[in-house]
Amino acid sequence: MASFALGSLMATIKLEFLQPNPRVPLDDDTRGSMNPSFKSLRMMEFFLESKPAGGLEMKIRDFALEAEDRIEIQLSNFLLAKDTQDQEQASQQLRQTLREVSKDGSKLLNQCYEEADDDEAPLIPWLSETSLRLQPPKLERTMVGRRHDYLLVKNQLLFGGDEQRVILIVGMTGIGKTTLAASVYEDSSVASHFGVRGWITVSPESNVRQTLHDLLLIVAEPDDETKKRSTRDETLAKQVSKCLEGKRYLIVLDNIWNNKAWGAIRECFPNDSNGSRIVLITTHFDQGSYSCSYDHHVHNMTLPYDHHVHNMNLLNPKESWDLFCSNPFLEQHMEPKLEKLRSGILEKCEGLPLSIVTVAQRLSKCNNIKREWKKVEKELELLGVLEDNTAFTLRYNQLAQHLKICFLYFGVFPKRSVIQVKQLIRLWIAEGFLSPLRHGRLENQAYKQLLQLIDRNLVLIDKRSFDGRIKTCKMHSVLHSFCVREAQKESFFCALNTQQLPRGSFSMFANSCRWLSFYTHKFDYYVLFRTNNPRSIFFFQEDVEISVPFKLLRVVAFAPSSFFQRVPTHLKDLVFLRYLYVTEWFEGLDYVVSTNRNLQTLVVSSKESQPGTPTLHLPCTIWESPRLQHLELGNSYVIDNPPSVVKNNMQTLSWVNPSHCREEVYYRLPNIKKLKIFFKDDLEPSHLQTGRPCNNPITLDNLDYLVWLETLTILVSAGCIVTRLERPIFPLQLKKLRLNGTNFCKRDLALIGMMPQLEVLKLENAFHQKIWEVDEGGFRQLKFLLLEAKQLEQWIVNEESFLYLERLVLKFCYCLKNIPMEIPNIGTVKSIELQQCGRSVVASAKDIQESKYLCRNGNLKIKIEGCEYDES
Questions:
Q1: Residue 581 above 90 pLDDT?
Q2: In this model, does residue 197 exceed pLDDT 90?
Q3: Which of 166, 340, 472, 643 can bridge 462 by disulfide, Cβ–Cβ 3.0-4.6 Å?
Q4: Residue by residue, what is the 3-state secondary structure of 216-242?
Q5: Residue 104: which of 46, 152, 64 has the closest Cα?
Q6: β-pairing, 419-420 with 470-474?
């Protein structure tokens, strides 16, 4: 992938040599050549974006990968030089390398220009087999399942008013979009309802003229002279529109590849208010492009068409098995044998109809089902599909260059894993996938690119947070296999299962790719590429005994401390780290962090400490990394001293020593957005411990100085007492607040209730009073409330409070008599959940479920988990 390799090279040059005060002093000649060299690379990038370069594209990729290797190796030699003489020699070699890269890049750019002048734009051929494109696929059997989908789409066609309507059937490749549309299209009531029906399967090679000509073949009368092919798109569009005028029509456009294909022809469909319908079948839905009329000159969007989007979901286990057993090739006597394989088949197919049907056909044609299933299982794990995957390849090739690399990156995670979006975005940034924009943060840019992959049904949403943002995502195993295969082809990725390799045999893979991932997979695939130094390592296996070069590593993710303890002498080589995630602190980590000026993310993830577990005090050298943005420590760790300088880049910080909660410290963290504070009785460093009883009060104050803070978590361990000053202590723009063990009083909750931006509040054993009366107008913007209050008996809610509440979770509310009647009357409330609550409040929830309040709020769902608490 030339575009990514080129982008990575440019990011390295910009980071290391074009910033103020670079790590390596350059002479005037070398410094003067850097900007022209960077400009040549940018021109090469534009060339790739405007025109795929074939063989020249491979040359660009190889040039960029090799150039970045050479530059970073020489830069590493300079940074690791032992004395002045070695450093000067390394500096000379680096300057020489930069000049050679600049010269080679200029030569390659000239080749790009020469090839661009020689080539003529290729003509898109008219497809043969017109008749195959202009009819729906033949259905070999009745559609199984999808009854609900079938009725919804059918009703959209037959009912809902006389205005023209565009119906989009959207879903990933192989999910059954075309089968559903064809079943509805052939329905007798649908066929008789429309005067004109037409079906066109759009090819990715089709141009606008061909699609318009196909439409004309469908809508024109058999002897109509307008069927003769026109040379102008405008003429064809007018002819199509004229033929459809006054007629109630149903036109299906199957396999729409991009928004542009629809936008170019939508104006040829007249709206005569007679109930006409257009169905678009696509894997990619961009509502702004599909349903909006877009003026490229004034950038104004209008909505001329009524439209409906029907998203296709994967089948659930029952639907999957019904579809599998409905295969006409399967004989009745085979079902008992297949039942034994049921769990394996359902796991591997993951609800994708294409996989289910193909597996059923394969197993129906064999004598030994068990043996054949082992072959099928291996193919599914390796390839993802059992037949030609051209559709996936075409879909991948349609992606923009910047989306391709983000898509392939999902291969580094194990198959069927749930991925934290927060982690994914930080990794993309650390890898250099995103170019900084003039306005806007990289995190927002990365999130938009994730949304584009989701819109194209290449990535699935797993869970959303309460503000609607995507919290976790995942990838279907079919697409994951495709990712791994394509990333290996591009010489970027290798996945290893060290548990299935003979000891010591994996040293050959150490230099074979840029992303090296260790995870367990049943069937291994090994592809060796030209030698490359790995930039990223991912650990999804424990006790991985492998030695890899450290010199060029940018990302080390989910690494066990045992990995570093086996190679302590190599820690000094880690000079390019941008992202470091380790399972626990290890000796030498403070050196690694303090010497990495490009480090953006540091996560030391320990298991939740139990009461009495001693706190590990970490050195303040952690603060020395100038670009550190995200510092997350398990609650067993604390940094003794606060930062001594302003940390403008810091956005995420946990856990914080309560002694740091001072005005002068917060002024050094002006842009912090997410903060966690942990109050524990042994947080003082050993040399400062004074024998203070753990029940001495600790003051919580000054948080309002953090003017950009959006998320705050405060945890107080048993035995600690936290006091507050009279004035409000929380920043007014705070959106999410979690309090655990704070023992706040009614006055504190009243102040929290007045916070204007607060949307999420979690009160976990945060106050111990028996009555909580919410002030009028309190918590107006709150959408989610978790309330854990073991001693609370009565909860009084004013009608003007909780106006936008969507979800309420009551946890361990043993003594609460009932849920306030005002809560289910809030129109926005979608769910009330009870976890391990007392009998009275459980009975109250059941009454709400069966009473008139449910009628006033049709979306309300009641969920009760755990055993009822028995007061006796």
A1: yes
A2: yes
A3: 472
A4: HHHHCCCCCHHHCCCCCHHHHHHHHHH
A5: 64
A6: antiparallel
Which one-letter amino acid corresponds to residue 177? K
Does position 599 have pLDDT exceeding 90, yes or no?
yes
CB 605 within 8 A of CB 576: no
Distance of CA 722 to the CA centre of its chain: 38
Secondary structure (3-state) at 71: helix
Domain that holds residue 202: 130-311
In whole angstroms, what separates CA 138 from the centre of its chain? 37
Mind listing the pLDDT tens digit for each residue in 202-256?
A: 877 667 888 888 888 888 876 665 555 555 778 888 888 999 999 999 999 998 8
Q: What is the pLDDT of residue 542?
A: 74
Q: What is the bridge-based pairing of β-strands 831-835 and 277-282?
A: unpaired
* pTM of the entire predicted model: 0.88
SS3 call for 635: coil
Alpha helices in 779-851 (DSSP H): 839-850
Q: What are the tokens at 8?
A: 């990575």
304 & 321 share domain: no
Contact 160, 464 (CB under 8 A): no
Instruction: Tally DSSP H helices, then E strands, for the chain.
Output: 28, 32
What does 155-182 look like in DSSP terms, one character per residue?
A: HHHHSS-SS-EEEEEE--TTSSHHHHHH
Same domain, yes or no: 194 and 306: yes
Q: Binning pLDDT at 50, 70 and 90, where does residue 304 land? A: very low
pLDDT at 276: 94
C-alpha 868: how far from chain center: 38
Q: Are the C-beta atoms of 65 and 5 separated by less than 8 Å?
A: yes
Cβ proximity of 811 and 837 under 8 Å: yes
pLDDT at 580 over 60: yes
Among 129, 110, 127, smallest CA distance to 118 is for: 110
Q: Which two tokens stand for residue 558?
A: 């989910």
Q: Which of 293, 265, 294, 260 is nearest to 278 (CA)?
A: 265
778 and 837 inside one domain: yes
Rounded Cα distance between 353 and 326, Å, is 12
| Closest C-alpha to 540, from 632, 423, 427, 417 | 417
